[in-house]
Fold each of these.
Amino acid sequence: MKRTIKVDYLARVEGEGALTIELVDGRAESVKLRIFEPPRFFEAFLRGRAASEAPDITARICGICPVAYQMSACHAIEAALGVTLPESLRALRRLLYAGEWIQSHALHVFMLHAPDFLGYEDALAMAKDHAELVKQGLFVKQAGNAILRVLGGREVHPINVKVGGFYRLPRVDELAPLLPTLERARETMEAALGTFAGLPFPDFERDYEFVALRHASDYPFSEGRIVSSAGLDIAVADYDAHFVEEQVPHSTALHARLRARGAYLCGPLSRLNLNFDRLRERARASADAIGFEVPCKNPFKGLLARGIELVQALDEACAIVAAYQAAGPASVEVPRAAGTGHGATEAPRGLLYHRYVIDETGAIEAAQIVPPTSQNQRSMEEDLSELAPKLASLPHAEATWLAEQSIRNYDPCISCSTHFLKLKLVESGNA
Amino acid sequence: MRVIGIGQSFAGDDGVGPAVIERLSSGVPQGVELVLAREPSELIDLLAYPGTVVVVDAVLDPGRAGRVRVLELAEVEPVPSLSSHGLGVAQAIELCRTLYPRAVTPDLVVLAIGIDPPARHGSGLSPEVARGAVEAADWVRRRAFE
């Protein structure tokens, strides 16, 4: 029996994509996550622009994770020019990144993904029966907004980041008032995690190669080596020697793969599996309290990984705000020189790699940007292939629900989503 | 009365909501609070208010740029679902009524100012929409004196 599951427009994801699964006798004959959003040519129009402009230009790639783009760009350019930041500025960058994780993860966990598990079409419908959960989500998200507003200059597309640091340091009396809100958000998240742990997670595991940054002491935001569960351990500058992006006919987004082994997984589950020993005490306690064990190979439990990372980000934000003294310059001097630099940071959805070649005038000669969704596309499709027997056994509506839920495990960022879902089922007789 | 401006000042006529707030900031009757909603989810908290709430926003109204319409809640068409880009005005209103049924304002008005689809980025309003901003600000002042 041949059966086609087709979702013309994926909802509750970031961007424009569709899904087609062809099932033959309970196997997946083909799985295509079709991304039809037009290519945006950022790498091309960065050429000739000043390297100092890259953080603000690339931030416009995404309204959900602009800080990730700013951080990867800054780290790559600073690597090219031999610039290092003092600990005080490093802490503020971690605070800004924590703010973005809080915004992005809270939106996804509470508003976009939880409805899948609780059986609601969307968060509005879910709010009628689970008002407290939605209130918790909005409160946690607003704690992230507050960090972006005070330190970044505004909630979306922050304007205070520059190569070498910040344009302006916040005053202590601007940052300190955030602490009570952040502490309450941390407690809210710790409680919500207990609720999330009771959700009905599908019984499904895969043997992924997990890929994430790993830092000498901290849970990774912006620094560290690129490591994997299969033993990869490389400097960021060696990314292109081990990873490659390829075109596929059904998607305008490039597909990345490990040159040696193919598909891999990046994002919260990978970060947690590879950096569990780097969690802060409260985040570790939250994970222990819900019995979360690593390695976790169930992609649906990415929701729990995001929840634990929310506690981690909120706890670190509390610590940085509490210790903040507004000492030292807002930025370090950045020389004008030629060079090539590589930067990889952990966007909410996973590894975000940038590479820039800069000429002696300070202009960008070449740019390369590999976002996490490109890196996870193969794994998304392979998940659905492995889910095929389960999908084939379910009524059509339930199969579609599970397929979409599986895609949303990745919080995919295609960009600018609207809600429209139309399903076509083609039964074409015996194969 | 709380007046909430919504919009993006860097997207031409879409910035008419903030422009009305700016115009009103030169002088409004006592008891009128002017607010900018910088992020859609902020609207939920701002709608939890015991008095009149006026939401000032641009609406696509091709060929009728600058037309000011006073919409009651029932006239604001809800959008089916949440995307990852957050909430629309109608969704925020619906969500606020669901989450805070007792706290949500009993008197909500959406002051909708027509714009043509934005064709460019950049600050500043077209002459038609600038006239609509003046009319909208005058409407708020009259309403505040009632």
Note: The radius of gyration of chain B is 14 Å.
Amino acid sequence: MARYIIGRLISLIFVILIISMITFGLMHSVPGGPFDEEKQPLPPAAKANILRKYGLDRPVWEQYLRYIWHALHFDFGIPFQSPTETIPRLISRTWVPTIQIGVLTILLSYSLGPLLGIVAALHQNSWIDYFASLLSALGLAVPNFIIALWMILLLAVQLDWLPTGGWGEPYHFIMPVIAYALGPLSGIARYTRSSMLEAMRGDYVRTARAKGLGERAVVLRHIFKNALIPIITVFGPQIPNLLTGSIFIEATFRIPGLGKFFITSTFERDYPMIMALVLMVAVLWGFTYLVSDILYTVVDPRIRFERPA
Amino acid sequence: MERAKAGRVAARREEARRVKRVAERMAEGVLAREHRTLWGDAMRRFARNRLALASLVVALGLICMALFADIISPSRYDQIDLAAVHQSPSLHHLLGTDLIGRDYLTRIVYGARTSMAVALLVQGIAFGVGIPLGAMAGLRAGRADFLIMRLVDVATALPGMLFAIFVMAVLGTGFSNVVLALSVTSWVLVCRLVRGQFLSIREKDFITAARCIGASGARIIFRHMLPNALAPLVVALALGIPGAMFGEAALSYLGMGINDPIPSWGKMVSASLGYVRIYPYLALFPTLMIAAAMLSFTFVGDGLRDALDPQMVIE
């Protein structure tokens, strides 16, 4: 087990390093930098000064090594678009709206999703089952910004109950959270349903019924508990992912969150910021997968690890 | 006694006649077991799936729309008429006109072409890169496998959409860059799939048998291994198409995709966003098209998966 984890950690570090190299290389491979003439005309001496200050006058490999060295000391540089702040401060500031939406989305989809799945499985082929199937198909196949636009057309334009977007008031949460939650909710509902149907066929369920257990106890203690394993292992790892938010939702509803910020950073060629954001998400994903793989063995002791290749 | 013997003789004659009849019919091929193939079975199962069948009709309709865009559409997609800007749907312009007076129906029809073209090119690259790499990894264990799998690790860990946006920002917007940005991570799934299939197939007895009768390496790969790995690849292709369509719509929606004047549904949605209160139809039509395309292609893919994998339990 320890061997497995160490092996995975080493390959994770390797992967992150490669990603940082690709990102860094791509950023510096194209003409045009953050201090280009058309953006702010400067005398040559002043420009050279700025380039020296940020180390942009050095060869790319040296810039890269410097960056990694500083990053290892938790110094990710200074964002060009807001030079009075540090990158972690800027990220933590813009992450707040994203996390608020993310938490509400998780609460909504991780409570309603299983519920819908259970009801659909218990009443297989009833109208509520078909409704659940329809909803999950919609939520899984249709992009969330399309759902968001339909909600705007219905709730903001047709009924005029809500503004089309914006941030700051509690009612600004309603549409983004619903549009964002529909995807994971559908996935969970669909998965719960098939997982429940699978568990309902188990011998232990027949045994539970045969020994005269009430329907409630059978469903909750025997079916649902066993159906829960795949749900936890599949949708648990999605939580960090949901907390990094959706660029599309934020762009649609004009929410000043992490995703919208990433877009402006790429347009402004804010190198330290792009680098930090891409690496942050890659590290977050990497650790999430690692932790979820380890958690598999805890939840389901039947799974064993082989030595990594 | 006599009667019993006569009965036995009659029964024997009857039996002989029946055997002869069966033999004749077998010779005619009437009683031979019906010849069934994986693909024939899959088609029969697919045809029973009404949702998949209906989706196939919609998807084929969209493909026709993309193919015959120049014939269907009432005007040219880049024809600007400043005297007729943002008109509501009417008999003259069935879906109205956009903010600079281009016929909206024409833009919608050509949008199908953009969407399909991106999806097919991205999937083409994904298969062109993924199949050889996956086959190499699956056939030659050891160093080649190790290197390819590390490449797969990196491409898997890349935050897909985030990285595509980043690539677009670096390379600039435009059709070919959209295809490139979406292809960066799209080959991984195909590569993994082929590798896994090859790893399991190459241990099968029929491969050993083929090797024993002296089949060449290429013959084993193309005649014996690839056809057996085909079913999951078809499903991957069918489900990859809506994935790439989403990628194009999403990038264009963020203003990082297709350039004007080429129409793209995603771009039309984002252009309509600022005017959604005044001209809601501008937002409605392209969103409906994106949803229809995504749903129909996804259902066709799901239908194919269910049809091709008889062991899988369908919910």
Note: Chain B is about 75% helix and 0% strand.
Amino acid sequence: MKQPFTQPKWKASSFKKMLCGLVVMLLASQLVLAQTKVVKGRVSSAKEAGLPGVSILLKGSNTGTSTDAEGNYSISVPERSGPVLVFSFIGFASQQITVGNQSIINVQLNEDTQQLNEVVVTALGIKKEARTIGYTAQEIAGDQLVKAREPNPINSLTGKIAGLTVAPSAELLGRPQLFLRGSSDLLFVVDGVPINSDTWNVSADDIETYTVLKGPNAAALYGFRGQNGAILITTKRGTKDKRKVSVDFNSSTMFEPSFLAIPERQSEYGFGSNYQYAYANNLYDVGNPNRRANIWGPRFEGQPVPQYDSPIDPATGIRQGTPWLARGANNFRDFMGVGMLSTNNVSVASSGEKYDLRLSISNNYQKGMVPNTRLNITNFNLTNSINFTDRLKFDGSLNVSLQNSPNIPQSSSGPESETYIFQVYGSSSWSVKDMRDYYKAPQGVPGVQQYYAEYGRGNNPYFVAYEWLYEHRKTDIYGYARLNYKINDFMNLAVRSQITTWNQLRTEKVPYSAITYKTPDLRQGDYREDRRNLLENNTDLLLTFNKAVAKDFQVNAVVGANARFFNYNSSWATTDFLIVPGVYDFSNSKNPVQAYNWRSDMQVLSAYATADLSYKNFLTLGLTGRFDKLSTLPAANRTIFYPSAALSTVVTDYVKLPQAISFLKLRASYADVKGGNTASNVGSAYQQVTGNSVSNLIGYGSEVTTAYDGPSYINQNTYTISKPYNNLPAAGFTGSLANPNLQSFNVESYEYGFDAKFLRNRLGLDVTHFTSINGPQIFPLPVASSSGYNNQIANAVTTQKKGWEVALTGSVLKNPNGLSWDVLANWSTYKETLKEIYGNETSIYLSGPNHVFHVGDRLDGYYSYNFLRSPDGQIINSPTGTPLTRPAGTNTLQLLGYTNPDYVWALNNRFSFKNFNFSFQFDGRVGGVIRDQVYAYAMNAGNNPETVQGDLGAARLKEWQSTALGTKAPTPAYVGPGVVVANGGAVQFDANGNISNSNELQFVPNTKAVTVQTYAQGVYNSGIEEPYMVSKTFAKLREVVIGYTVPARILGTRFIRAASISLVGRNLLYFAQRKDFDLDQYAQGYNASTQSTLKNPSLQSATTRRFGVNINLTF
Amino acid sequence: MKTIFYKSLFFVAAMGSLIGCKSFDELLPNPNVASEDKAVPPSLILPRVEFDIYDQGDGGPFTQIQRWNQFSISNNLYYGGQNQYNWTTTNTLYGVLKNVNQMDRQATKTLGTTTSAYAALAKFFRAYIYVWQANRVGDTPASQAAQGLTDLEPTYDTQKAVFAQSLALLDTANTLLASLAGSTALPATISGDIYYNNDLTKWRKAINTYKLRVLMSLSRRAEDNSDLNIKQQFAAIVNNPTQYPVMTSNADNLNFVFNSAYNTYPHTPNDANNQYQFEGYPYLSLATATQDPRTFVFATPAPAQLTAGKKVSDFSAYVGADISKPIGDLYTEGASAGPSGKYSYTNNQRYYGSVAGPEPYIILGYAEMNFNIAEAINRGWVSGASAQTYYLKGINASLSFYGLTEGQTYTIGDQGGKTLGTTTISISNFLNNPGVVYKGDNAEGLEQILAQKYVAFHQNSGYEAFYNWRRTGYPKTFVSTGGGINSSNKIPRRWQYPVDEQTYNAANYKAALQNQFGGTDDLYADTWLTK
């Protein structure tokens, strides 16, 4: 629950204390006269055993008192008249208690999030009353998110904010993808200053609140970086504890004992092709036609099959058969361990007359499920402020995050990935238990040659886990210092300088004998290093002005200037095979080392102003304006200006509405943001220099991207230097034509909505409609290839996003001493369409979606091939026994669905009963399509359970039985469903790939039998994606927390002042069309910044349920 | 307050200087790459162009193109690839043309003259790219192409005009190289050449040899387009080797040579095995029928034939696969049938035996040139020369390319280094085979020339095997219909124009369609070249 923002004035002058005391004395003396008794007690909250400064009022009188520093109070009440005490404190729901016979009344106050005078942190860290804001900003308290922990702190925001979609990564040290109103690339701001964030460099325990500014309206003051909205983080500051010192300890330990989304595999048939398999007579299976086998081999019936561990007859040199059995039916689960997540935080806070201080140390240790994988993140956070005088104040903070992992598991579709080894080409014919000694003889040679069951495609999973190491080290520092000078009662001058810097090292050790798919694949190991350094400084000068300039007119204004300095440099280098096995150093490279470096610098100078003009506190007009001078734009168009305006009014303040409506605020806003030629993420130096992914060079893997926000340099005609032939240099000219007259991009946003509260604020409804007009963008506009180029950089392409966000809060039950039930529901939706292209152009070809779009089209369509169907809807097969395909080409692709979800929802329930609380959250998304690649791969490989079930399974068994235990070619037994064209009729197609002569064709049932393998692989390789498409609709039971707060009376001693313990669970249930992969991580459909559509997510790690316990102690 | 304001300003400036203040103009360009104003020598652009001509234009051996040429027939969609002629919009070489222009421009800039060896090569590459485009689609942008912002919607040249200007460019390139021939000074030399190691004599031969290929590709239009002087131009080259030097041996071939460290052969010993592709029926049936020793070079015996007791030296043991068969049937009858597999695989020992591969990839070869000249003589374009001589030169050039000699003992091996047996190479049996002995300057002789040319194209020369079949209908063994070909059961005659042309050069695109095919971008319509 949220902390109050306005604190009672503890440090009141001694005069005030005296006065107060006098009043109390006077009142007390009056009451004594009227037969009084004294009631004593202690007021506490969920977090603090003693709540100081709580006002206690005798109902119906002016008599009152307040609690002392320990939360104790004492009040005299008249005995006769059934006195009632009213306990109230800002930020808490007030309580009324009838005194009756009691003389000791202990009260626990509950925090209230729905106070009308709620204060929200907005851009630049300026706190504003929520009622005056004309745009949407939703807030969540940090301490709601530290019980049921996620490895990544930002993952915890899932479902908490309407319009913010968090797609948590399934990978260790994976960065969640964040989409706010469909846009990624959000700005992170800590205590008013922007930071560069990989989302891992904030520590959940240090966060007081998250505020999400949901669009450019809210973020106009951060300049172009705020174009998609911002996540503002306010960190915890020095203690409010009157003892001036407090110590907090928060500890979570969670385990991952079971899988949530995992592809299942058949274990009836093993390695091989067409029911045949035999390991060759030589040591490493060289030249064996069954090398690189799929899982289309013989059935496990104990028949003799020469295998990797079968003996060779010394006389004949021929490998003998040993029983063919499903030795490794449970290989994947046997290999994977139990993951663990342990988070511990200690924070010490202190405050005094002249200062406050908080120091916090957190450690986040994660043990991966893949053996020998782990992640350690240690975070130091220091915040302080010093009041030199009443007018001059200094404050600052420093956050240091150290990330360290000796080995991060990979999940790509490649030889370094456990998912690939087990879930795509994992045969049950070998047991993973036999692979633990991965240098075992006879095949294995320590340090040189791995032992495995298969030497054509894959690697021994233990060998990968313990020898093929992906190291990660990152030091991430950010902080600021600010000097604040209060010029007079209404003006304040602040100068603030901030720094955000990190350096990251990633290394990869490829051991000798590892199969890599590099060309050529000599299997002689490699060593690679990827180093990246970023440094950014923002320095601001801010003058604030807050004054009632006339009766009922309040002006709150800020005038500021900002200078942003950015510097980034990186290098990427690799050996080209090792000379000596196991020596991972560039000096040990067989062929010349391949090294690349890349750097960038950028400056932005800005001036900005914002003013909120309020009339009687119920009508507020907010205006902002900002000038940026950007080093990334051509000189003539370098200085850009963008404005925003917001209007809000609290209708209930001046219009009498039905009693059920206790509060109604209407709001509308407009913003226009500009910017240009920056990128939010950056790849390796190799990619930055060559334009190609590292996988192009090394044959596998994927590009590591990091948060960047620096120059993209896209608007420049350059040569790319490469070494296409025999390591000799060559230069090619750009395919992208620069534009010397390029202007900034433009994002306009309109937003309107209302905040309403009903039934004495027990029900809150927040509805927003937004329209975001994105463009003209800085767009690589495709050109005719005959011009010699692929595209020209232009101010082109405008898209329009329209959507709704609804947040509903309700207190279904509200009983401080009994059962309380709070509900929070979020719902959001949007659609993006093409509004304008360029000049008179009405259509545009985008290579990502591979489709020609017309103005008005949705951009998130999935275009691919589906089955051709007869007029009565049956699949048409070709005479070859597999489904007939359409002619290939962009124009013949069909719309298979849209990739963006239709809407996103979340439902959070919180119950509390006395010292117990219970909460759970369901959330999910509805709509959208995606290719289920792990399913498609397994169908092609013959590994999917569907290939041994139903018609496919029956045919597969029949075929197997026709092979005489794999010694003969099978008799094809599978007749694909559907029809064929009869009487030799020829199918004709129109330009869109549809059959143009179907009324001339006769269709008869398909009778051509093919093998199950031919059919499954035929469909997979036909380009028909229909069978692999799944709905992206899913729901998750995201979190469950059962908590118990130890009552103060049990704690007794003054050593531990508050204690709570929670049993927590995360990601407990998952509902989806097919549970072989976790759709949660693929929130993205169309991505405007890359003009691409997520169609095929390839492979991913299996996701797990997480259970654990959280302990929170305050000393 | 003022002091604080100025102090703060100073603070901002101080922070700035800490990180390093540069002028905004200095910060604008990318410091990591060579921008267009940098002195990038033409010798650095040349290898890019040359590599892309191979990589994007041809693709190399054992690629999809070689399946469409029917030299390799896949039996496994996933590992062996598609057999289907599922053709669609063409890819283009205009990006390479852009680099050619850039090389030409930088040569002029750095050498101070437009008459350099780079300029001559630029003309050759332009012609090569124009012809490459026109062969695929028909009319195509050429004279106005690859000019960037100057012309983002280039007009289309008719296919005839494209060929005419290409021939003219090749002629100028030859003349220009001739004029530079005596000099060893810079404008007359090149560096960075990955094909001929900067030997311009060989380049000149290649240019004229290429011109022969282009002229021969126009055979269907030789009679009705006298303005093109096709026959005369052809004869001029054959008759005047001083003015038009041409290739004189395999050593003059325009080859892409593989190397073990960086540009490896498509198949290597780590490639597991050769069982995902069969050798094609069209050439193997020709070769076995004529006792062609190249049979042993390319293929291994079909397992069923060995099982039935045939020897490895027995030509009838080698059976090619038919591309029109359903791929599932090919798999069942072949790869999965083990010892009773019906079809021959690629010679594993030769083509999977080393990282650098057994042979370079021929982009333009001496053997083909001889067959082109033989064809021209057969067609009566050149007088006073013997078609038979050139025909035999072509055959011998191909045999010697594979290192075959009379009486040589040749080991036939299968996968995993397994030796199946040996055979003795008899070139004389082959050359004396009635099917090989030249039947004269008539239709039968023409068919022989084109059949031998086809066999010599095995796994090389890009689309030439297909183009020659498209132009002449030879070899007759080329499979042109059947369920495995594609959903329409027939081989397309051309590709469609790129989608970006349809979208961004729409008016010119539509006009070109109207001029050629009555408005439809028809895969099965013949262009002017092959009508």
Note: Residues 8 and 14 of chain B are 10 Å apart (CA to CA).
